[in-house]
Prior knowledge:
Blueprint: H1 2-10, H2 22-25, H3 27-34, H4 36-58, H5 69-88, H6 98-127, H7 129-132, H8 134-139, H9 147-172, H10 184-208, H11 212-226, H12 238-243, H13 248-262, H14 268-299
Amino acid sequence: MIKHIYQKLFATKPGAEQRIPRYKQTRVYQWLRSNPKLRDIRQSLPLILHLTRQDLVERHTGSVLGATWTFVSPLINILVFVLVFSSIMGAKLEGFGAEIDKYAYSIYLICGMLAWIAFANSLGRITNLFKDQSHLVTKVNVSLLALPLSVLLTETVVYVIGMVFFIGFLLLVDFPLSAYWLFIPVIYALQCLFVYALGVTLAVLAVYLKDIKEVVTVVLQVWFWVTPIVYVMEILPGWVQRGMQFNPAYVLVDAYRSLIMRQQLPDFLPITLFAIAAFGLLALGLWLLGRTERDLRDCL
């Protein structure tokens, strides 16, 4: 009798075990689950997280403060920008109110520098990643598409720490924070996509062309100075200003400044072109790596 009641209450209804959530029935979900490249990335995630943690801990190995420099370095950068440009040089940007104008240029500079440091460091490191991690690439069955994620995760941690100190500074000088800050992760995700796509392409080329690393280093130095990061756009000729919407670094920096300083959404056209370029580079990088992966491991 008790067994009969139990079966009535708790027995699985006919056909219930075949029920599958609708999202799992979509072609996109099935493709994401069955795609071998994505499956390899998922299987490599524990290793990627280990490499990220190792990088954060060991990048300052041997120093007195050790891993604490991960927190101290962004704070020192922000303090230097504020002290040098606001207190010593007295650099100002007008239009934010008498109390804030004194710090407006420092805010302008920090917006650009935090984004650029994450952008340049990630791209520079990913470019030589396959060669730097050749012991893993040749001896461990790790996804080459997953390896750059460790660099992006490391630089993201540093970027987030810098942003936390930046927010603290803004609150200290009574600079208003707006709801547009919620869009910063979207811009940063596009930044990571672009860096990942371009970095993978360059990393493949760097295995065969030994000068790629040095070329990228020089290009990043030039790229920094041709992008309005430490100077304002208005000092440039009109034709250069119009062409800046095709400069990926400027599109990113200006998007952050729009959200943080101007408290408005960035211009739609430059961001759209940036996203298209990122996905185009991603397709190129995936194709190039797919064609060369087996030979690439042998070359290393």
